[in-house]
Amino acid sequence: MSVLWTSKDAAVATKGQVTHPFEATGISIDTRSIRAGDLFVALKDVRDGHDFVRAALDAGAAGALVSRIPDGCSEKDALLIVPDVLAALEDLGRAGRARSKARVLAVTGSVGKTSSKEMLRAVLSAHGAVHAAEASFNNHWGVPITLARLPESADFAVIEIGMSNPGEIAPLAKMARPHAALITTVAAAHLEAFADLAGIAREKAAIFEGLEPGGTAVIPTGLEVTDILRSGAEKHAQTIVTFGTAPGSDYQLLSARIAGDATIVQAMRAGQPMLFKVMTPGAHFAANALGVLALAEAVGCDPTVTAMDLGNWEPPAGRGQRQRIYMDIVDERESFDLFDDAFNANPASMAAALEVLAASAPRDGVGRTAKGRRIAFLGDMLELGPQEDALHAALADHPAMSKIDLVHLAGPRMAHLRDALPRAKRGEYFETAPELAARARHLVDPGDVVLVKGSKGSKVSLVVEALKKLRQPGARDAHRGKE
């Protein structure tokens, strides 16, 4: 692997002191995933990263970014000593961005940040070398790590930027300095920290404060806060591109039709019709795709080619990924479909997931129940503030619920949805996700289509793990090509 940071360059960027020269090929903050040649960054979080420096060096780390010489280490070890590790990491991120010739794209939004980032990774790869954030590296340490990892050879960089509180997006956007920035949507999320949707919109629009001169802002239409987003964009962007269902949108969504495991998208771009396929079901993925097309075009990509390349993308685990769980190595009918959407949840993303489930087709006559079912396993939506009880209960009134057979629930907030659901749809309810996970294997049947959805903190991903354990060893290979 090529050298990412020499100790000399890193010391210049951070104004730190080097105890022993090193050459790092990567950046790591976790000894569990560290690779030989990484620079280990000793951040303080739940644990103090200094406690793991010795282990990192013994595992092959090229050096460590520290604020003191840790226990078990000495000046003979390759250490870069700085007054504050997080501040130094931010300096390293700024230096990584400053030396890069890549076209930088930034993405934020209440829903769809990570999916849009991964779409961009897929479509931009046809046009050059792409560097994108891992997982959801979108916070005060994730963004500088992503920038610090940016190879000088990259043609494109995709930076995901998130927030939980006011004032978090602008500093990260100014660090990333994107040439183009996308807001996927604005929805009720993090209402514990914001008074209303307008406050969330103003915070999201702060991403445009980091735009490079001549930059492009991509914003959704048809929202009650679209004018707030537009106002924020007008202050900092040379070009504003819109997408959504509203007439007059630069990228106007005409229809999104779910067809099996795909979504057929009809749209208009600059008055010309577009027809393309996203290889996963969900109208929300169609909307995200239009934002991605607009953002990619802003950095020079052909929108027709980009639309075709969207067929190479599939959602990552926990983000709406669909898979068939084969419970028998011989009989492929002994299987059910699982939507793993267990990484995050708010009312907007929950509604989108329920719509996908409602549009899915179970298979009859293959399980203990003669009729295949649509089943939802739902965990709490977190950080919704004073309205959280009502927002959970309101899911019972969503039109998609009419096509869902059973809803199993976990978490104290989901008790309000349980009480609001018709008795015929009420599945099992538990205070915690581990309790529901322990019962999950008894609650599904061949032919079912199953959704698992909830905020990460609800731990509803444990239900996904429990359901995946129903797959018979070797069954996936035996039935490969039939999914």
TrEMBL record:
Its EC number is 6.3.2.10. It comes from Thioclava indica. Gene3D superfamilies: Mur ligase, C-terminal domain (3.90.190.20), Mur-like, catalytic domain (3.40.1190.10), MurE/MurF, N-terminal domain (3.40.1390.10). This is UDP-N-acetylmuramoyl-tripeptide--D-alanyl-D-alanine ligase. Pfam families: Mur_ligase_C, Mur_ligase_M. One of its GO terms (molecular function) is ATP binding. Keywords: ATP-binding, Cell cycle, Cell division, Cell shape, Cell wall biogenesis/degradation, Cytoplasm, Ligase, Nucleotide-binding, Peptidoglycan synthesis. InterPro entries: Mur-like_cat_sf, Mur_ligase_C, Mur_ligase_C_dom_sf, Mur_ligase_cen, MurCDEF_CellWall_CoF430Synth, MurE/MurF_N, UDP-N-AcMur_synth.
